[in-house]
Write a structure and sequence with these properties.
Elements lengths: L14 H15 L1 E4 L19 H4 L1 H4 L13 E2 L2 E2 L9 H14 L11 E4 L8 H8 L8 H5 L6 H11 L6 H6 L17 H7 L1 H9 L3 H6 L3 H11 L8 H22 L5 H15 L8 H10 L2
Antiparallel strand pairs: 1-4, 2-3
Helix pairs in contact: 7-13, 9-10, 13-14, 14-15
Protein name: Reverse transcriptase zinc-binding domain-containing protein
InterPro entries: RVT-Znf (IPR026960)
Organism: Oryza sativa subsp. japonica
């Protein structure tokens, strides 16, 4: 037991042990571990480093493991990481092994300290946000999930953000991929119309972000997730709580203006877009506790 944590019981095992084994996999899947001595933690399947689960991050290398159920402690001998693998690794596996060893250099086993296992999501509530995190979890938590499920943002806009971050909006580029259309270009700019273009680089988007003094960051960002995170990294602390809702209102407003142009051939003025974004924030503010409303009002005032 010190060297492995079995996921499945053998047919000859007792009913009690079979029951114990049946709950091990769900426990591993729904928890993360603060490593101590590593005796009760699976090396490949458990979430015991910030990087995530090694069997998901390094699937090729994991296929070379002599025992996929091995414990962390079994791979650490005399103060050194010794990963037990089948010989003759492929070039991909060798590359993954080097990356894995770089991560392990920062991990320290503490022989006299027990491992501490906690819920992966850090919450006992069964919420929409928690379920969404579980649905999108692939070894590493998807960062935009926290922004999308902000309490100030209505469900309609949350769905829009989910599609935007995943590049699943029916942009002209995606419509061409689905063979619904033959023109992938933006109707306002000479560029391929993607979610990133509409929200960050389109002519209308530029005017909105200029109003908030965020234009340079928008055009510099590689995608909308990069943009959102860059702003959060540089904002003063008192402005950070309202930023997710402000971004949601702005991007949703830009999307609706784009739809007006595509489907009704009606151009929306920048002034009207800013007005509607500000109205959305003023309406959403009532979804928050009074003590939190100031954060949203601050962003709404910037759009005046």
């Amino acid at each position: 037991m010190a060297n492995e944590i079995p996921i499945k019981a053998k047919p000859t095992e007792t009913p009690i042990w079979k029951t114990v084994c049946s709950v091990i996999e769900p426990v591993i899947a729904s928890t993360k571990v603060t490593i101590g001595n590593g005796q009760l933690v699976q090396f490949w399947r458990d979430h015991w480093t910030a990087a995530g689960r090694f069997n998901l991050i390094y699937p090729t290398l994991a296929s070379y493991a002599t025992n996929i159920n091995c414990t962390v402690s079994s791979q650490h001998t005399n103060g050194t990481w010794t990963i037990v693998l089948h010989p003759v690794l492929s070039s991909r596996a060798q590359t993954e092994l080097q990356s894995l060893m770089d991560i392990l250099l920062e991990q320290h086993i503490q022989q006299n300290v027990p491992d501490k296992r906690t819920l992966l999501l850090g919450s006992t509530d069964i919420t929409t946000s928690a379920n969404y995190n579980l649905l999108t979890y692939h070894g590493i938590l998807w960062q935009p999930a926290t922004l999308i499920w902000n309490k100030a943002i209505p469900n309609t806009c949350r769905i829009f953000l989910w599609l935007a971050f995943r590049d699943r909006l029916n942009t002209n580029a995606n419509r061409v991929l689905k063979k619904w259309d033959s023109n992938p270009h933006c109707m306002t700019c000479p560029a391929i119309e993607t979610s990133n273009h509409i929200i960050l680089r389109c002519k209308l988007a530029g005017e909105v972000w200029k109003k908030l003094n965020l234009y340079e960051t928008a055009v510099r960002s590689s995608n909308i997730q990069d943009f959102v995170e860059s702003i959060l990294d540089t904002l003063p602390e008192h402005q950070k709580p309202g930023w997710p809702a402000c971004f949601a209102a702005c991007s949703h407003g830009l999307w609706k203006a784009r739809n007006q142009l595509i489907f009704k051939l009606t151009e929306t003025s920048v002034a009207y877009i800013l007005h509607r974004i500000r109205e959305s924030l003023q309406l959403w503010v009532h979804r928050l506790k009074p003590s939190l409303r100031e954060h949203l009002n601050t962003w709404a005032d910037k759009l005046s």
